């Protein structure tokens, strides 16, 4: 293992008994068949379960719908990328030459997938309790920001309601460009609110995610 993965394990608070699991979790499909795609699938389920438990314990007064919205905000791509960036996950990824040249180590979709794969690797290495404890540690800063009194609407809905309350036409969304190879595309979508001369561009691993991000940025500008 390299000094990067040694440092990563210290940040995770987990030393792998089987280093091969960590190596596979960090290997993107662009490098070959022994990659982290199956780990992503497993890690996504573990993350959702662990986050459900964390929110259930932390906010005993929240109803089911409120818990679901809070969980969605904790397991979305933006949240995963933030956590991945905090632990410098990109510096440890094993990528094919093409992905390296195109900046794949900083691509949000690749970082988010790798974080899910990493959670799965801890599960396989040490069991569910260890994986749940990892999620608790990594996501604690984000959990601390959850406001149980907030409505928890997604950005597009929140922006629409903000504009409707001011009798303003709804925003328009348009595709700006599509980046990356077909197997790892990123989308850029513009959100425009002409009345307030606001135009923002959001990026995401899907058109929907990009629209949500651009709506979030637009709402921030409007509220200023």
Describe this structure in words.
- This protein has helices spanning 3-12, 19-25, 37-58, 64-75, 77-86, 97-101, 108-126, 128-143, 155-165, 207-223; strands spanning 172-179, 186-193, 198-204.
- It is mainly α and 224 residues long.
- It has a three-stranded antiparallel β-sheet with strand order 1-2-3.
- Helix 3 crosses helix 4 (64-75).
- It starts with a helix and ends with a helix.
- The relative contact order is 0.13.
Short précis:
This protein has 224 residues and is mainly alpha-helical. It has helices spanning 3-12, 19-25, 37-58, 64-75, 77-86, 97-101, 108-126, 128-143, 155-165, 207-223, and strands at residues 172-179, 186-193, 198-204. The chain has two domains: 3-143, Ribonuclease iii, N-terminal Endonuclease Domain, Chain A; 155-223, Double Stranded RNA Binding Domain.
List the total number of helices: 10
Number of domains: 2
Strand arrangement, largest sheet?
1-2-3
Compute the number of strand runs: 3
The topology string of helices and strands comes to: HHHHHHHHHEEEH
Q: Report mean pLDDT, rounded to a whole number.
A: 91
Amino- and carboxy-terminal Cα gap: 47 Å
What does the largest sheet look like?
3 strands, antiparallel
Radius of gyration: 19 Å
CATH architecture classification of the largest domain: Orthogonal Bundle
Share in helix: 55-70%
CATH superfamily of the largest domain: Ribonuclease III domain
The level-1 CATH class of the largest domain: Mainly Alpha
Which percent band covers the strand fraction?
5-15%
Structural class: mainly alpha
Low-confidence stretches: none
